[in-house]
Amino acid sequence: MAILANPRLVGELEHYGAGDVVKCYHCGNCSAACPFSKEPFIFPRKSMRYLQMGLEDKLRGNLEPWLCYYCGECSEQCPREAEPGEVMMSMRRWLTAQYDFTGISKLFYKSWKAELSAIVAVALLTGLGFWWWGATHGDIRHYDGPQAFLASSFVHAFDWIMGGVLLALLLTNCARMWWFSMGRSRINVPLTEYVRRAWLLPVHFLTQKRYRECEKKRPWAVHLALMLSYVTMLVLIMFFLHAFQEGPEISWPHHSLGYLATIGLIGASVYALRGRIRRSETHYKHSHETDWIFLILLLYVAVTGIVQHALHRFGAGHAANILYLAHMMGVVPMLVLEVPFSKWAHLAYRPLAMYFSELQGAAILAREKSAAPAVRARAA
Ligand code: SF4
Ligand code: SF4
Q: How much distance in Å is there from the Cα of 283 to the middle of ligand 2?
């Protein structure tokens, strides 16, 4: 079968943050230094090779970029300063764009102005829509009760519709990821293996346990705190929104979880922003524009959320409603644009890649085992 090479691939990856790929001369130091590089997934050197050779299809089906946690060991050991850690990061961005069938992700990664314009447009539409609804169905001086400006029943229905659209987009992207990496691969994985190892998916998602194997534990802890806070907040909003809009009494079973999640979101985003400004750790040395947009949006949403909550509890209904509008103007673009098309998508892709790679690894091992007697017989 002919293998097609795309000579423009290195240039294309530059839009996603890869800068020094051509410097690599394949000494292999990076793969030797990587704590996650284990048979049959030896990286990052092989991925650097695919990229240099323009093997687009191989790169599209490559799970290795998702097995990298950007600890930076490889970049520190590279004698050519080819920044393999950053190249792996840029491949994750490129893969995110490949899984997305709409082309929106590609547009965002190639032009931060397009992403920012889309965020502003969705934010303005959200603000206008919610303002119109509130003005025609409620009173801006009331945060809760029958005259509430934004009744929890309305926001709840809106959240569920938005959640359904998001889920459909994400599942489609995940199906494309499966097709590129597993479906058209020559490594055949039986359906029973998918079922038998399905438990790996929630375990990797909820614990990020492979990240913990990194020598430096702090990035894992920050990442886990951010992910758990985000998931907690999502569950609270999707299932218990009414408890957050009633009041002014505090519903401790719900609010205590909400406070913890808010602390996690603000703490992790401030930590990451500070790290990127100071370039204090290897994985913060290079920042793509989309990293800044994501973190600023996340911080904005968390801060406006807690301020509107405080205003409501102190009885300032009018101000709380204005902050609620401002909050939703951040929430909607974050969920509609960032989850399926940008940085947040890796919350789904990384655990999936862990799961797929374990399935592939076991299948390769089984194939080698069954081939071994035949090889021994030929040698005899
Ligand atoms: S250490 Fe640097 S030069 Fe050597 S293979 Fe890795 S990226 Fe290439
Ligand atoms: S950044 Fe760390 S995890 Fe990623 S390829 Fe390099 S050494 Fe491996």
A: 10
Instruction: Domain ranges for the chain, please list them.
Output: 9-99, 104-363
Is residue 225 over pLDDT 60? Answer: yes
Phi, psi of 61 (to 5 degrees): -95, 10
Residue with tokens 């293998």: 3
**Closest Cα to residue 222, out of 268, 262, 257?**
268
* Residue 135, amino acid: A
Residues in contact with ligand 1 (CB, 6 Å cut-off): 24-30, 45, 48, 77-78, 80, 82, 84
Residue nearest to atom 7 of ligand 2 (CA): 34
Summarised one tens digit per residue, pLDDT across range 128-170 is: 999 999 999 999 999 988 899 999 999 999 999 999 999 999 9
Q: Residue 202: exposed, middle, or buried by beta-carbon count in 10 A (0-12, 13-18, 19+)?
A: exposed
CA–CA separation, 294 and 167 (whole Å):
20
Tokens linked to 38:
């284990």
Contact by Cβ (8 Å): 44, 64: yes
- 279-325 pLDDT, tens digit each: 877 778 888 899 999 999 999 999 999 999 999 999 899 999 999 99
Pocket test for ligand 1, best of 10, 20, 26 (most atoms within 8 A of CB): 26
Q: Which amino acid is at 79?
A: P
Opening angle at CA 212, ends 211 and 218, nearest 5: 95
DSSP 267-327: HHHHHHHHHHHHT-SGGGSS--HHHHHHHHHHHHHHHHHHHHHHHHHTT-HHHHHHHHHHH
